[in-house]
Amino acid sequence: MIVPFWTSFLIRTYSWLVILDPDFFLWRALGLGDFEILYTTKAIYIGVIYNYLPLMVLPLYAALERMDWSLVEAAQDLGDSSFRAFRRVTLPLALPGVLAGSLLVFIPVTGEYLVPAILGGDKTAYAGNLIAQQFLEARDWPFGAAIAMVVVGGLTIALLVYARALGKQEQYGG
Q1: Does residue 125 fall inside a structural domain?
Q2: Which of 34, 40, 52, 75 makes an SS bond possible with 80, Cβ 3.0 to 4.6 Å?
Q3: Can you give the pTM of this predicted structure?
Q4: Residue 90 domain flag
Q5: Which residue has the higher pLDDT, 23 or 83?
Q6: Is 146 part of any domain?
């Protein structure tokens, strides 16, 4: 999970540009050279998931690693099914990791510019691309600044909600 972070974000994104190209040797060898996934939203999703998945998995892993698994065993001994034990024990105990990972992914993805520009062919409107377009192409700096402030306001609200949820969880012993 950590190995991709040893490589530059730009190199990882460009590698997906090569892999998703229909002329990639592997697709030709498998007879799948006629699919067009590059420069679509699917290609953007693949790039975003690949680049940001470790930011979600690592906090979740840390939360699950420090969890007391005897609580799950106790819930199952008391008659809970595996799913119900997960829902009633594991999920509440892992919630700080889920929230932290979600926040770690949400913040950079909100302003994502590089992946939609490279893998999406700059045809998909993301907040980062829209802001860059207003500053560089349209030369409408006030509108670009307004969009950026809306993004910053949204991120501030998300951070406040996270801090409040974390505070309530600590208050009630979560």
Answers
A1: yes
A2: 75
A3: 0.81
A4: no
A5: 83
A6: yes
Tokens of 99: 């929230």
Helices 91-110 and 41-65: crossing angle in degrees, nearest 10, is: 140
Q: Give one DSSP letter per residue of 30-62, joined into a string.
A: TT-TT---TTSHHHHHHHHHHHHHHHHHHHHHH
Task: Average the pLDDT over each of 60-64, 106-110, 124-128 and give the range with the smallest value.
Answer: 124-128
Indicate whether 80 belongs to any domain: no
Q: What is the pLDDT of residues 111-155, one digit of tens each?
A: 899 999 999 988 888 899 999 999 999 999 999 999 999 999 999
3-state SS, 108-157, equals HHHCCCHHHHHCCCCCCCCHHHHHHHHHHCCCCHHHHHHHHHHHHHHHHH
Angle, CA 17 vertex, CA 11 and CA 21 arms, to 5°: 150
Residue 162 has pLDDT above 70, yes or no: yes
Number of domains in the chain: 1
Amino acid letter, residue 37 = I
